[in-house]
């Protein structure tokens, strides 16, 4: 995994809604990247409301903070992994 | 750590609305949201063999002004054009025109302009995050943007 640079894959639907897949991030860097992306998008007038947040299996190694648990949809091992 | 986010998006151009209200012509022209809006409408026009003008026409063929000076015209498919306006109270991007006899395409092209704007904004944001950006349009018209981060 260390050989792969962090990557974001953003699928934009015809209605403008998006699904953003963060891969190869270390630790909590993906959350920081997500926050930065939202801030920059806001500068372009895009107001984003996250409707689903799914952690990938490798995240289960690091326990999420208490605040994150309420917004987390735990998934089966292998699902959504790339 | 990695995760997947699904999100709804709204285009709310409040800063641009304020500039339009103040009549700051030069600042409007140079605003990044206006640049993206112009680029989005131009891309949709090119994809359909159309053009971008400052006005759209009403039912009687009279030109109608838009507060963005942007209107999409596509011969045959959108003969009276569709104007892009920013709601000065809310900043919402709105579309105006007479869709008579072209209702389906009128709705489709609005959605395409919104999708294109969202794609361009995400690409611009990713570049500012030092990502190498590429895009791909799928058969279902979904656009997939890939941003590989460097440094």
Topology order of chain B in helix (H) and strand (E) letters: EHHHEEEEEEHEE
Largest sheet of chain A: 2 strands, antiparallel
Average pLDDT rating of chain A: 77
**Secondary-structure element pattern of chain A, one letter each:** EEHEH
Percentage beta strand of chain A: 25-35%
Largest interface: A-B, 51 and 46 residues
Structural class of chain A: alpha+beta
Estimate the strand proportion of chain B: 25-35%
Extended strand count of chain B? 9
* Number of domains as seen in the coordinates of chain B: 1
Structural class of chain B: alpha+beta
Radius of gyration of chain B: 17 Å
For the largest beta sheet of chain A, what order do the strands appear in spatially?
1-2
Entry keywords:
heterodimer, A: 82 residues, two-stranded antiparallel ribbon, 23% helix, globular, B: 151 residues, alpha+beta, four-stranded antiparallel beta sheet, 4 helices
Q: Which secondary structure elements does this structure contain, and how are they paired or packed?
A:
The complex is a heterodimer of chains A (82) and B (151).
Chain A (H helix, E strand, L loop, with lengths): L6 E6 L5 E6 L5 H15 L2 E10 L10 H4 L13
Antiparallel strand pairs in A: 1-2
Chain B lengths: L2 E9 L2 H9 L2 H6 L1 H16 L3 E3 L1 E3 L5 E3 L4 E5 L3 E9 L6 E4 L6 H26 L2 E7 L5 E7 L2
Antiparallel strand pairs in B: 2-5, 3-4, 5-6, 6-7, 8-9
């Amino acid at each position: 995994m260390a050989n792969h640079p962090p990557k974001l894959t953003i699928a934009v639907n015809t209605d403008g809604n998006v699904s953003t897949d963060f891969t190869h991030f270390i630790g909590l860097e993906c959350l920081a990247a997500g926050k930065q992306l939202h801030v920059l998008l806001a500068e372009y007038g895009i107001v984003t409301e996250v409707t689903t947040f799914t952690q990938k299996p490798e995240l289960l190694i690091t326990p999420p903070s208490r605040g994150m648990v309420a917004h987390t949809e735990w998934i089966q091992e292998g699902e959504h992994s790339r | 750590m990695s995760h997947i986010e699904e999100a709804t998006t709204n285009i709310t151009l409040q800063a641009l609305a304020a500039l339009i209200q103040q009549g700051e012509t030069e600042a409007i022209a140079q605003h990044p949201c206006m640049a993206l809006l112009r680029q989005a409408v131009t891309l949709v026009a090119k994809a359909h063999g159309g053009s971008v003008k400052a006005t759209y026409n009403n039912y009687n063929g009279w030109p109608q002004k838009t507060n963005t000076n942007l209107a999409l015209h596509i011969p045959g498919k959108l003969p009276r054009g569709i104007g892009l306006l920013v709601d000065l109270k809310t900043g919402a991007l709105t579309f105006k025109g007479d869709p008579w006899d072209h209702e389906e395409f009128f709705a489709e092209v609005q959605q395409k302009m919104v999708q294109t704007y969202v794609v361009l904004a995400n690409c611009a944001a990713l570049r500012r995050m030092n990502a190498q950006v590429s895009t791909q349009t799928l058969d279902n018209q979904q656009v997939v943007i890939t941003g590989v981060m460097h440094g």
